[in-house]
Amino acid sequence: MTKLQIGVIRIDFHDSDEESKDYVTCLDPERLSRGSGIPAEGIIGVILHPLEAGERITPDNFAANTVFVDFMQGVIARRGPHIKDLITEARCLGEGTLYVIDQRTRAPQGAVREILTDDIFGEFDVKDGKIVSGSYRPNPKHYLLSADGFFQLGPQLEHCLLEVLASIPDPDDAPEANDSKTFIN
Fold first, then answer.
1. What is the tens place of the pLDDT at every residue in 71-90?
2. Domain annotation covers residue 160
């Protein structure tokens, strides 16, 4: 499985008065090098001010991209019920609420009460040891970036996210019917 790589890309807006911006992305560097635009779903967020040498991206200088957040939450909602780890957890739980936990959490494995709200992607209902289809509820308080770093879906959900991202056409390859606001060029 491919690991989710989070990086920064600078985009210069040559045809406007707008200054260049640094975007945080999880798209494959090879895809980024093609120069055919970037689908908005692949932009995690934007760095709010240029970073000084050695300065890190922090929650104070990062703004999440709602298109990416909605996209990622949609992947979790659709693919989560088919993820082996979540299926196993649901079976063990039997009945109740199954939390999809951000793997960056400092809480020990299985200690849901100790997990910060911003480290929970969302939740599924579980009935008779099975995830209830269509029951996913995203957590509006989840942060893509916290003091503990960027989100970490875990290997199986990361694979799903990357697979769905890879299926999105480059803006230059997309049919004309696509809304140009969906892409960042």
1. 999 999 999 999 999 999 99
2. yes
Question: Are the C-beta atoms of residues 42 and 27 closer than 8 Å to each other?
Answer: yes
CA angle 57, 59, 63 (to 5 degrees): 90
| The total number of structural domains that make up the chain | 1
Joined together, the tokens standing for residue 118 give 């911003």
Q: Flag whether 67 is in a domain.
A: yes
Query: Does residue 39 sit within a domain?
Result: yes
Q: How far apart are the first and last CA of the chain?
A: 29
What's the number of CA atoms in the CB half-sphere (13 Å) around residue 88? 4
| Burial category of 93 from C-beta neighbours within 10 Å (exposed 0-12, middle 13-18, buried 19 and up) | middle
Q: Which domain holds residue 148?
A: 7-184
Q: Is residue 2 part of a domain?
A: no
- Give alpha helix (H) positions in the chain: 29-33, 66-79, 84-93, 155-166
Tell which residue, 113, 124, 115, has the closest CA to residue 86.
Answer: 124
107 — phi, psi (to 5°)? -65, 145
pTM comes to: 0.86
